[in-house]
Amino acid sequence: MTLSQSDRAIAIALDYLRQIGIVWSHHPSASEVQHAYERILSSVGTRPIEELIDLTIMRDPGSLAAVEVLTKLQPA
User: What is the pTM of this model?
Assistant: First the structure.
């Protein structure tokens, strides 16, 4: 990202995520995006957004690392 190489940053991040078992496409199709969106909605269910703060705090090191990578990748 620092070198303004967004495509490379995305490729590296996706490779890292693949190594920890999270497989995402570099260029997802509309149906892949829709499926992911539906999975998120299914996980949230009918809970109002305010209740999500009461969820258990994530402590799994792999999941935390994945969130960190995705956070850094967001501008790309």
Answer: 0.66
